[in-house]
Design brief:
Elements: E1 5-10, H1 15-31, E2 35-41, E3 61-65, H2 76-85, H3 88-100, E4 110-117, H4 124-129, E5 134-138, H5 142-158, H6 193-206, E6 211-214, H7 222-227, E7 236-238, H8 252-265, E8 272-276, H9 285-298, E9 301-304, H10 321-325, E10 330-335, H11 339-348, E11 352-354, H12 361-371, E12 375-377, H13 392-402, H14 408-424, H15 429-441
Parallel strand pairs: 1-2, 1-4, 2-3, 4-5, 5-6, 6-7, 8-9, 8-10, 10-11, 11-12
Length: 443
């Protein structure tokens, strides 16, 4: 019998990244009882009391909170870089302690690798010090991974500066996409000097790793995944959809969820349009009025998760998105196209009206609408930092389109829903891919 193996997971900050890492860790541990996983968590002070549901009971998975590090700097990209860099010594210390612990039995697991978040590539240095390989867990889709790697190649081999791309520039031809991509849907991070530099650096380091786990599945992004199997990219393991479908709110949040679901119970099947733009998706007053006008004119029943900017340090109840999308009365989803939201909507067969806000969401929206025909467009090139107000007429058109019961998009989404579930079943594409990854670990 082969010796047990230990993987060290290093998620990025933020509950979304931590929860995704926990989900893939659970999948791995459930597949092979020789696998042990230690998750090293970097937390901001505001997250210090947060606890993942089920973390204490997860078999062969343990969490170690690293000492907190304060970083004083302006700009999110520089902050993330310094924040992760400042944790390197804490990771060294934690892994050194882990490897020096006396065995509890004759089959103490050997350290076989690091699994790092896409934003934590500096931790490759630490893995190298311990003489083990690094794998990346890429929490977005293969389309974004393909863009990241392509722009790094253009920068390093052709000296092209992606921050100079403008809306008037010719469309970008990317190997990972069938259709040329308009420059106006380029993720905002690539229009910022610091952000572009950081992502190009991350992409270079991705190429140093032994493999990349991607939260997608072959049936969804087959063209992109094949394009990335070019011999220049580390082996890809599409293991998605990696979703947390069982999280439960507590206290007042549980009561609010109950109230929402009871209201949905009283509505007809496919009659409610759901609007939610993620934890950072808030709009100004003028835009909120346009959305309200569109909803009123549509005459449709709706559930709207309406947020406003909060004072620093305050947290807000989050609409129970998974439970809402899974409810039979919900017929359409007006979404920011965050990758987790995309996968959740596909899982439940709910078509999306795409209204991206930040991060890589513009590219996600382009992929869903133009590449895959799984969504309709409200405004794919919307950027929160811009001054554009999307008018009620555009919003209403998108809402009516996404709620059409016999639409081509709804048919395709239903088919992809079935494929997403089959991908995780025994013998499915993602199930097999995860098996190949585990085989690689034990080589």
């Amino acid at each position: 019998m082969k010796q047990a193996a230990e993987l060290v997971f290093i998620p990025a900050i933020g509950i979304g990244h931590l929860a995704s890492s926990f989900e893939i860790a659970k999948l791995l541990a459930a597949r092979d009882d020789r696998l042990f996983i230690t998750v090293l968590t970097m937390k901001l002070p505001l997250e210090s009391n947060f606890k993942l549901k089920g973390a204490d009971d997860a078999e062969r998975i343990r969490f170690i909170n690293l000492p907190e590090e304060a970083v004083e700097t302006k700009g999110i990209n520089l902050f993330l870089k310094l924040f992760v860099e400042n944790h390197k010594q804490h990771v060294r210390d934690a892994v050194a302690k882990l490897t020096s612990e006396p065995p509890q039995s004759d089959c103490k697991p050997r350290l076989v690798g690091f699994v790092i978040d896409m934003f934590c590539t500096t931790m490759i240095d630490v893995a190298n010090e311990f003489g083990v390989p690094t794998y990346v867990f890429f929490t977005s889709g293969a389309g974004f991974l393909g863009l990241v790697l392509h722009l790094q190649t253009l920068h390093d081999e052709q000296n092209k500066d992606c921050t100079e791309l403008k809306e008037s520039d010719p469309d970008l031809v990317l190997p990972c996409l069938v259709n040329p991509m308009p420059a106006r849907v380029l993720p905002g991070v690539y229009l910022d000097k610091d952000g572009a530099t950081e992502f190009i650096n991350h992409a270079r380091r991705f190429r140093e790793t032994k493999g990349i786990l991607v939260n997608t599945f072959m049936e969804l992004e087959s063209h992109c995944l094949r394009a990335l199997s070019d011999g220049k990219t580390p082996p890809l393991y599409p293991v998605g959809p990696v979703l947390n479908l069982k999280s439960e709110p507590e206290g007042s949040e549980l009561a609010k969820k109950k109230e929402i679901l009871e209201w949905l119970d009283d509505q007809s099947p496919l009659s409610v349009v759901f609007l939610c733009f993620g934890s950072m998706g808030c709009f100004g007053g003028d835009q909120v009025k346009e959305i309200a006008t569109a909803l009123e004119h549509s005459g449709l029943r709706f559930l709207w998760s309406l947020r406003q900017p909060l004072p620093k340090g305050e947290l807000l109840f989050a609409t129970p998105q998974v439970a809402v999308l899974g409810h039979p009365s919900v017929g359409g989803f007006v979404s920011h196209c965050g990758w987790n939201s995309n996968l959740e909507s596909l899982w439940y067969g709910v078509p999306v009206a795409a209204w991206p806000v930040y991060a890589e969401q513009q590219l996600n929206a382009f992929e869903l609408v133009r590449e895959l025909g799984l969504a309709v467009e409200i405004k794919m090139d919307y950027r929160r930092e811009g001054e554009v107000v999307v008018r009620a007429e555009e919003i209403e058109r998108g809402i009516r389109e996404v709620m059409e019961v016999e639409s081509e998009q709804r048919k395709k989404v239903k088919e992809m829903s079935e494929k997403s579930r089959r991908a995780l079943m025994d013998g499915g594409s993602s199930h097999s891919s995860l098996g190949r990854f585990i085989d690689q670990i034990f080589l």
